[in-house]
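Bug #77: duplicate submission created two jobs. Keeping one. Sequence:
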Amino acid sequence: MARVTVEDCLEQVENRFALVLLGARRARQLLKGATPLVDNAKNKQPVIALREIAADRVRFDRDLREIMASSPAELRERYGEPDRDLDATPSTGSSSPRFF
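Kept job's structure:
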């Protein structure tokens, strides 16, 4: 696969929202040292995650609607505490938003 597209991934995932959730989760796993499930050819982790999704190598372990209907306590019990350091935005000392 020369180039991965959203359309390639949407054949495996039910919608764009689910694609973002799954891709972000898998990219974080790869950043923490998980073994890529496809040939990575020096791609960055988000691209590798999308290639894995397009190749149907990763998927949600439960129905997305069931996950979204779960309470925060149920999610913490199943998946553990969220990674605060990955989601935290450093303070700039100003009230203006930061753009990346």
